[in-house]
């Protein structure tokens, strides 16, 4: 696992350099979710593929930017699904973006997840790695330094509601409004990594990306986005559900499958469960 941890650190330094260069033009290609890829999305995907190619313990990779899985080392144990650049449409407005890595053993699937990691590219570059604990690291020069363990409180103060409101179910709107009525503050940048990072570091709250009338299975992808953050939240003492079920109990049929998702501290997730159980 240390070799993977080091490889992710190297990708972070190279991706930071790629983000800092001027040209972020759109490519002519679409990814598997039908979104136009930025040249930067493709470049970050290549950086990660290159670094992981040098790690013998990695069997197969799956990327948001690749249609299919790619086997790297037949003798490896780990299967890594990653989103090379999450929130890439925020680059041109200079908001924070990230990379997300789900590390699975002996095949992809929530039940096989053994570790999870994300990197935030904001004013600073930070990395959160969850294995037995959830740990925060900060890039200083060319090295990541350990900062602290992340633990969520029982209840937070932030509310990050994703998805187009026009397409929310009425009970979902009531749920979101109920937190605002209780004094929760809106925090939503449109980048999953910084939005969830903020909730983790401020002690708790709720991030939701529900099923909507136009996207009944939500937008966020299970293997690269949903399961990695579910693992991180649970390791940090929070919870992660699809409305009813624990996200880590869900299966997947295809590497690009999506799921509605709710991440938060225990108090907020309990409320989500109550509202969704009745609907
Ligand atoms: O614009 P919306 O519908 O709120 O969606 C925002 C979500 O989409 C994403 O940008 C999807 O990720 P990509 O940028 O990797 O496609 C998440 O980071 C974010 O949480
Ligand atoms: Mg993403
Ligand atoms: Mg992406």
TrEMBL record:
> Could you tell me what this protein is called?
Fructose-1,6-bisphosphatase class 1
Residues noted as binding Mg(2+) 1 in the record, renumbered to the chain: 64, 83, 85
Q: Write the Enzyme Commission number(s) for this entry.
A: 3.1.3.11
Which NCBIfam families does the annotation name? PRK09293.2-5
Supply the enzyme class, top level: hydrolase
One BP annotation, GO: fructose metabolic process
Question: Which stretches make up the Fructose-1-6-bisphosphatase class 1 C-terminal domain?
Answer: 153-276
The subunit structure is: Homotetramer.
Q: Which UniProt keywords apply?
A: Carbohydrate metabolism, Cytoplasm, Hydrolase, Magnesium, Metal-binding
> Which pathway does the UniProt entry assign to this protein?
Carbohydrate biosynthesis
Q: Give the GO cellular component terms, alphabetically.
A: cytosol
Binding residues for Mg(2+) 2, per the UniProt record?
Answer: 83, 86, 225
Q: Which residues form the Fructose-1-6-bisphosphatase class I N-terminal domain?
A: 4-133
Among Pfam families, the record links this protein to:
FBPase (PF00316), FBPase_C (PF18913)
**Which residues are substrate-binding?**
86-89, 188, 219
From which organism does this entry originate?
A: Sulfurimonas crateris
Localization annotation: Cytoplasm
State its cofactor: Mg(2+)
**Which family does the record claim for this protein?**
Belongs to the FBPase class 1 family.
Keyword Hydrolase part of the UniProt annotation: yes
């Amino acid at each position: 696992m240390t070799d993977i941890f080091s490889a992710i650190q190297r990708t972070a330094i190279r991706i930071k350099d790629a983000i800092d260069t001027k040209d972020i033009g759109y490519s002519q290609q679409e990814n598997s979710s039908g979104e136009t890829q930025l040249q930067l999305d493709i470049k970050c995907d290549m950086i990660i593929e290159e670094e992981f190619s040098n790690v013998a313990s990695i069997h197969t990779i799956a990327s948001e930017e690749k249609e299919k899985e790619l086997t790297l080392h037949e003798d490896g144990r780990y299967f890594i699904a990653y989103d090379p650049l999450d929130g890439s449409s925020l680059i041109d407005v200079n908001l924070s973006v990230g990379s997300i890595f789900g590390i699975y053993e002996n095949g992809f699937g929530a039940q096989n997840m053994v570790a999870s990691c994300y990197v935030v590219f904001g004013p600073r570059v930070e990395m959160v790695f969850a294995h037995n604990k959830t740990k925060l690291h900060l890039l200083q020069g060319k090295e990541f330094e350990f900062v602290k363990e992340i633990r969520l409180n029982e209840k937070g103060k932030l509310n990050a509601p994703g998805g187009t409101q026009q397409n929310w179910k009425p009970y979902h709107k009531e749920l979101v409004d109920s937190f605002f009525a209780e004094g929760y503050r809106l925090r939503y940048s449109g980048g999953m990594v910084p939005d969830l990072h903020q909730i983790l570091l401020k002690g708790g709250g709720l991030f939701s990306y529900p099923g909507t009338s136009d996207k009944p299975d939500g937008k966020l992808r299970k293997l690269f986005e949903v399961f990695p953050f579910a693992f991180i939240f649970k390791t940090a003492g929070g919870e992660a559900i699809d409305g009813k079920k624990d996200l880590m109990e869900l299966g997947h049929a295809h590497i690009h499958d999506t799921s509605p998702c709710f991440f938060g501290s225990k108090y907020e997730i309990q409320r989500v469960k109550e509202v969704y159980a009745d609907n």
